[in-house]
């Protein structure tokens, strides 16, 4: 299972590269992946559906399974299992997925610029659905659930230049994400209540878990909200028709065979154990029946044949959830059979719509006419699939619908609710017949006063996928016993029925058969009288419009957001600081007032006079910042406080923290100074909306409360600090003596991985603010400019010709030397500092070597990837300051964006690699070796993660230098040059003045 999952995602990652070479033919390569997985599934199907019966009481259909430890401390596991229900869903996911990808090779054009990303997303979606249905852990299931949400958003918004596609994608994302987050709360409540997140264990202990009462009832209700939103049941049904803005292959896969089945799957998974909970019946049966009727009714008024199918899908999803959620063995048998039938005929019909749209250029049934003559093969495929949707015998749709009727006819005698459900299902099925006829008539019939639609011939490769699905729809009707066999293990999880329902074409002259005949007749009558039905709909529609409510809700949220933003986001830093600091004061201050302040124990002002001196320097720097009248002086005084903290760390015996603080403060100072170049040097008068007395009060109150809170929290300690165990944990668990570094790259590696991801995002944000068209990775090299002209003062009186001649001469003279520092070639003489250039030549390589030493030695001595990366970045900063932006371009041949990506990739791979050796994610190993006379050594694999951190930090510094340094340099030079040209135009050399 894990191999199939990895293969789907791995090929999805490679898809853009494959499309560059093969163009749209790459879809055939992508289709081969789920096709091979489908073959594997069929070959192993007996093993999946005939699980050891003795294990059913302990964990329903648990074997075969695969479990890999993920985060042991949180009891998170990558747990997967393939039972009968999962295997049946995988038939649709892999089989239909392969056919849809095959179909895409003829649907799209070769020159489509987004084919690579589309193919990757569609194949990754197949992987996410495969992971979802095979997950045996609630959290893992939720992760795959949300991956499908994100990918569906991207696929629905494929036509990104169309506002309707973007709006529909946002709508689907908001609705399904809302449902997913509600479901997450339910999953956590259920997992914590049951003290396990393993789904198979939950199902086996359901009776014991349900005994917890209201809490479990609420958890199941919240989980069902997620299922209802994903499967587009009322009141969330409106997002699915809107999602028809997606390309038709997306609709055929996501909205017919895969994504929307996730909700059906979840209901089916929980039904054997939790169908007796308090809110199950009204949620599953009530919303299911209402959705079936609403979707069918709305389908009858659509003029776009794709929307006819979309609303029909809404109706069928309500039908499916109603049946699979009924909680009986017969309903389980009928519901899963219906789910298979729906996946086949609805996917085929969507693909037919795609062909019609592709070949005729329209989907409007008012314009389509005579396609039965111009596309006879397509006509046959559509006729069979539409007939199966309408449950016309002898097709598999009829077999499944007959089983549903048999089930609910048996239940109808149990009470009025069951009878009402049967009546509702029959009424909904009549609407199904009517909209099936409307689709078929709208797409293929010859219509009065409508000329025959011009229709290009359909290639066999284009028709092959819907034809194969239609063949299965026909063949499965004649071998129903085979599919009854594969469904039976799942149905066996329910109490055995007194009169088991069997799948078959003929059960004799039964009440169910009579209802089927009545359904077909009334459905046909509804279609024949469609004009009268449309008139009735115009008078009744809409009684309730969920989409309008959604738009009103989103509009209201937008207005509230505008109101809140207008009153909080005033563009004044002082206002934001006052709000932040007030909250930071009030939160701990209120707690201390309510509960009192513990008396401090051993409270001392300072340990040594050195601390007092450093503290005084920091205080002087902070106060001087307030009274500074120039920006540079203000920034310099702020840096005094930072360097003071670094000295504090060093004095207190924390050299690693001191080193890191020193490097961070230096980089920050450089970034500030570079940014100040585009700001006025003088600090103007304050224009804060906050009165000065309030600002003074907050400035004084905040440090006082924070100090008191820190003293109180330390005085209130009753347990031994966990930090006392860190040296032992670092050496025994992380194989290192540097507690800080081991904690960052081993003990709390997940935090560090998140932090470097944030660093990459911050670097991208900085670049995005500066660069408009691109990130600035393509920087001009020194060979692109005339020597000695960068920063040249234009008041020399030389003509343009003289400057150019001087540039050529200098280029000729410098071409005979091989200078390491390019300042001599690029910078104007008045901008150069010979002393700085000499110092740079002396220290640059040393700084790089020391940075590598810090990287490699950081596990046992002060340093690490973060400190090493900062020092390497400072080395580049020195080169930039000495030689300018062209020197930076020569020194950094690899772009900042590439470094950030490579660094995160190395860090991620170092976390995944242990899985291939039977370890856990981010587990580190120590390799001891001897180098003879050089002694014994030990290498810890977490160093690879530290290398990733090193590269990410270096990329961040490069991004800052490129954005705040090189780019601003270039813009200032452009302004200077334009100014000079303007003066030359006003006073031309040799002309009249």
TrEMBL record:
Its main location: membrane. This is Multicomponent Na+:H+ antiporter subunit A. Keywords: Antiport, Cell membrane, Ion transport, Membrane, Transmembrane, Transmembrane helix, Transport. Residues 617-680 form the MrpA C-terminal/MbhD domain. One of its GO terms (molecular function) is antiporter activity. GO terms for biological process: monoatomic ion transport. The keyword Transmembrane applies. Residues 697-770 form the MrpA C-terminal/MbhE domain. It comes from the Bacteria. It is found in: Cell membrane; Membrane. Residues 835-958 form the Na+/H+ antiporter MnhB subunit-related protein domain. The chain crosses the membrane at residues 84-105, 114-133, 139-159, 171-189, 209-229, 236-258, 278-300, 307-325, 331-357, 378-399, 419-441, 461-483, 503-529, 575-597, 609-627, 632-651, 657-676, 696-716, 753-772, 834-856, 862-882, 894-919, 939-962. Residues 74-114 form the NADH-Ubiquinone oxidoreductase (complex I) chain 5 N-terminal domain. It holds the Pfam family MnhB. Residues 135-410 form the NADH:quinone oxidoreductase/Mrp antiporter transmembrane domain. One of its GO terms (cellular component) is plasma membrane. InterPro entries: CPA3_Na-H_Antiporter_A, MnhB, MrpA_C/MbhD, MrpA_C/MbhE, ND/Mrp_TM, Proton_antipo_N. It is a multi-pass membrane protein. It comes from Neomicrococcus aestuarii.
